[in-house]
Amino acid sequence: MKKAFVTREQVQTINETYPTPFYLYDEKGIRENARKVYQAFSWNKGFKEYFAVKATPNPTILKILKEEGCGTDCSSITELMMSDACGFQGQDIMFSSNDTPEEEYRFAAKLGAIINLDDFSNIQELKDTLGYLPETMCLRYNPGGYFRIANTIMDNPQDAKYGMTTAQIIEGYKILKANGVKHFGIHAFLASNTVTNDYYPTLAKELFELAVKIKAETGVCLDFINLSGGVGIPYRPEQEANDILKIGEAVHRMFDQVLVPNGLGDIRLFTEMGRFMLGPYGALVTKVIHFKETYKHYAGVDACAVNLMRPAMYGAYHHITVLGKEKEASEEVYDVTGSLCENNDKFAIDRPLPKLQKGDYLFIHDAGAHGFAMGYNYNGKLWSSELLLREDGSVKLIRRAETPKDYFATLDIDDTMKKYM
Ligand SMILES: *Cc1c(COP(=O)(O)O)cnc(C)c1O
Question: Which of 57, 183, 339, 397 could form a disulfide with 223 if both were Cys (CB 3.0 to 4.6 A apart)?
Answer without folding.
Answer: 183
